[in-house]
Amino acid sequence: MSTTTDITTGAPTPATPEDVLPPLPGDFYGYADLLTAEDQAILARVRRFAEERIAPIADRQWASTEFPFDLLPGFAELDVVGLGRAWPDRPAHSKLLTSMVSMELSRIDPSMATFFGVHGGLALSSIDLCGSDEQKERWLPAMRRMEKIGAFALSEPHGGSDVAGGLETTARREGDEWVLDGAKRWIGNGTFADLVVVWARDTEDDEVKGFVVEKGTPGFTATKMEGKLALRTVQNADLTFEGARVPEANRLPGAGSFKDTNRVLRVTRGGVAWNAVGVMMGVYELARDYALERVQFGQPIASFQLVQDHLVTILGRLSTSLALAVRVTQLQDADHFRDDQAALAKREATIALREAVARAREVLGGNGVLLENKVTRFFNDAEALYSYEGTREINTLVVGRSITGIGAFVGHAPTR
């Protein structure tokens, strides 16, 4: 009998049937077997929650563009926020486990995976990497319990890929306070977050600094973005700061330049490759099951050569992307990780994702555009994954600079 470890006492405990992690059809090479028995048990609980609690409502929430707040207590009970850091009562788990948690959520609903990644990845990591001990104690335990939800505000109405050099939101110091002015856009969780990590340019030294802006701060408003056709359950917001006053105690002392912002981004960028892998797993299962059940010309369409070509191609794109993603996590755990490696994984996985969702939609024919068959939700959501946390073009240039020594970004001189 396999065992898991009680993280409070350290004593081995027998694994229950709920802890057993069956292989996923899309994990063709069995990468989940790289996890310890304890980590597999954690992942099994996440999978069960996603399949039993998220899957039944995912289409409805996507159609209504409303966030399912009633899921948060169950999410909190999983205790998977901040798995990658050590807590007084819980050791740090591997990057492979934290990434596979994101994959499992994306396999069912990439909107919920994005919510989780913003809260437990970008927001929590910003405070963990750049905050003081007092700030970590003030906010992180509540974020782990999902009593306080976080957001991360970097992108702006006029700044996307070039935000590092063109940040328009400003911060100026007045005594023991900072006054923030400007706007942010595409801020996931922005409409309801209890705290938002805001990156703004200091008017005195022109450096980018990080601030935690709490809900209800005068001069700070958040407005839900409407008309979004991807990741519709994610509550993306336009944020405005009009003389918003933030105490010095809410400035992240370890965030003194954009290099510090990038420290956070490099931790999370590889995660989008895992989101893409999860979506490919989801549509692979949907297309395969449909092909086995759908009968045309007197036989299941899975018996047709062209349909098998679609299924095998989806599995191939998925498997190569998963291999890249796994290797990135191994390098992160070994502390031998480079930004360009995450950039290549994100680029390749999201390119593969676009093809995979298109082929899955094609397997379902006209039924593929009906929300009730789910593939169209993944099809639309793939477009957001393809673009956020580094477009294909930007990640191409990051890798290109790495392999040639020449920066081909607009306005950049060669570095060789």
Automatic annotation (TrEMBL):
Q: Name one Pfam family in it.
A: Acyl-CoA_dh_1
Domain named Acyl-CoA oxidase/dehydrogenase middle: residues? 151-242
SUPFAM superfamilies this protein is in?
Acyl-CoA dehydrogenase C-terminal domain-like, Acyl-CoA dehydrogenase NM domain-like
Signal peptide (UniProt feature, chain positions): none
The Acyl-CoA dehydrogenase/oxidase N-terminal domain, residue ranges: 36-147
Instruction: Domain (Acyl-CoA dehydrogenase/oxidase C-terminal): give its ranges.
Output: 262-403
Homology family: Belongs to the acyl-CoA dehydrogenase family.
Provide the protein name: Acyl-CoA dehydrogenase family protein
Q: Say which species the protein is native to.
A: Actinomycetospora termitidis
